[in-house]
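Usage

Read records sequentially. Each one opens with the input sequence:
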Amino acid sequence: MLNIVSVLIGLVALVLMIPAILPFVAILNWLLVPLALVGALIGMASSRNGGRNFCLIVAAFGALRLFAGGGIF
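and closes with the structure output:
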């Protein structure tokens, strides 16, 4: 059950990261990366690893986007 919740949190974060690719909307990643990390924490309590791994990939993508834009753009 916790794995499903983790995957759903990761999907929400991923869908919200799609418009955050645009330059001045990228500041939204400051909220989405911690959301994906919360999903990864929930996924750690599960017996399966899929949700945790998915959330970590989503968080890494958002962090990479923040790094590439200098934290703002």
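Summary fields computed downstream for this record:
- Helices lie at 2-17, 29-44, 50-68.
- The two ends are 37 Å apart (CA to CA).
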